[in-house]
Write a structure and sequence with these properties.
Elements: H1 16-19, H2 32-37, E1 48-52, E2 57-60, E3 65-67, E4 71-73, E5 77-79, E6 89-91, H3 95-105, E7 110-114, H4 118-129, E8 133-138, H5 145-162, E9 166-169, E10 173-177, E11 180-183, E12 188-190, E13 193-196, E14 200-202, H6 205-209, E15 218-219, E16 231-233, E17 238-241, E18 248-249, H7 254-268, E19 280-285, E20 288-294, E21 301-307, E22 312-319, E23 322-329, H8 332-344, H9 347-361
Parallel strand pairs: 4-16, 6-13, 7-8, 7-13, 8-9, 15-17
Antiparallel strand pairs: 1-2, 2-3, 5-14, 10-11, 11-12, 17-18, 19-20, 20-23, 21-22, 22-23
């Protein structure tokens, strides 16, 4: 892969490690001895430049080639880049990116984060933990509203404001100067560090070159197999048929990628295992974790069971008369129970569980 570091616990790059509350030793998933013992050859700092699915060969950026019997495409996603430059402008995707932000953060006082995405807000929380002045610039009226709805959006905004973050919502980045950013309305914000987190795009160039079927990602079947024999895909690039929603979906979260990699590996070894896991992710904001199970690109209504202010609630997203997703704060047991019921497809039991929670938290 293009990364020069061994595989890492990527969520940590925007959470504890970036905040300075976890050592770098925690970041690598495995040490070098593990890969050697498992006969795994890590080819770091090297891209695949061409894929021939008929000949089952790869060409690498160092000019060498490899043949394969089974291939997994897990190329992930790349940060969306804005047309601005500067030594103090950073993005966050890799360990090197996180190291660069940390190095700069130890020398500055004022930071502007562009984008109220999960990454953007987690960076804001991490840098506030380092006691830096943080401003967040984003075009939406509420952070995370498109994914989590207005109730959690308002809660997240208030939580960050309680910790000293200053929001500039309904605004976009106009330009970047050596010591400041200028917003679209002319507002000038002092900034010795600018971190941009405005989303990612699936890295599908190799799949496109190889002629695989694409649809805003790499199309795979229920076994995560692509349109080319002997080639599977997993993680941020994979669009798969989700049994619960009945739709083809693509999800950009760590746990989904991890679980898909496991299913794909078994199928590459000859199994015929369906990927049936319900999507899950979590997002950390200071001492508050938001856990989310399911997938709701849209909803008919949102029910808040319990209290967001008390940080003890279950937020239910309903679409087409059924539960599409659930977000919880301070209610991990309910999140795990909902995950089990969703994977079983037992909507009656899921509704009964949610009614029990509603009564308990009323």
């Amino acid at each position: 892969g293009a990364d020069t570091a061994r595989p890492v616990d990527r969520p940590n790059l925007s959470k504890d490690y970036l905040a300075g509350t976890a050592p770098e030793a925690w970041v690598s998933l495995r040490d070098e001895a593990f890969y050697a013992a498992q006969n795994i050859d890590l080819v770091l700092g090297t891209r695949v430049t061409a894929l021939d699915t008929a000949a089952r060969t790869l060409v690498l950026s160092d000019g060498t080639s490899r043949s394969y019997d089974a291939l997994l495409l897990a190329t992930g996603a790349d940060p969306v880049k804005l047309p601005v430059t500067g030594d103090h402008v950073c993005y966050l995707r890799t360990l090197a990116d996180s190291r660069a932000i940390i190095a700069r953060a130890t020398q500055v006082k004022r930071v502007v984060v562009v984008g109220a995405s999960f990454i953007g807000l987690e960076v804001a929380a991490a840098l506030r933990t380092r006691e830096l002045e943080v401003h967040v610039v984003a075009p939406e009226a509420r952070p995370l509203e498109r994914i989590l709805g207005p109730e959690i959006g308002d809660f997240v905004r208030a939580l960050h404001q309680e910790h000293g973050v200053v929001f500039h919502l309904g605004r976009t980045l106009g330009s970047v100067e050596p010591d400041a950013v200028v917003l679209d309305d002319g507002t000038r914000l002092a900034a010795e560090l600018v971190v941009i987190g405005v989303g990612v795009r699936p890295a599908v160039a190799l799949a496109e070159q190889a002629g695989l079927t694409l649809d805003r990602g790499v199309v795979v079947d229920e076994h995560l197999a692509t349109s080319a024999p002997g080639v599977w895909a997993a993680g941020d690039i994979a669009r798969w048929p989700d049994a619960r929603s009945g739709k083809a979906i693509r999800v950009e979260h760590w746990v989904v990628a991890e679980r898909q990699g496991q299913t794909a590996a078994r199928n590459m070894l000859g199994k015929a295992e369906r990927f049936a896991a319900v999507p899950f992710f979590w997002s950390q904001h200071y001492d508050v974790a938001i856990a989310y199970i399911g997938h709701a690109e849209a909803w008919d209504r949102i029910d808040v069971l319990g209290s967001l202010a008390a940080r003890s609630c279950v937020v239910v997203y309903r679409a087409g008369g059924k539960v599409a997703a659930i977000a919880t704060i301070g209610r991990d047991a309910e999140n795990l129970e909902a995950e089990e019921l969703m994977e079983r497809g037992d909507d009656r039991a899921l509704d009964a569980m949610l009614e029990r929670v509603r009564v308990e938290l009323s």
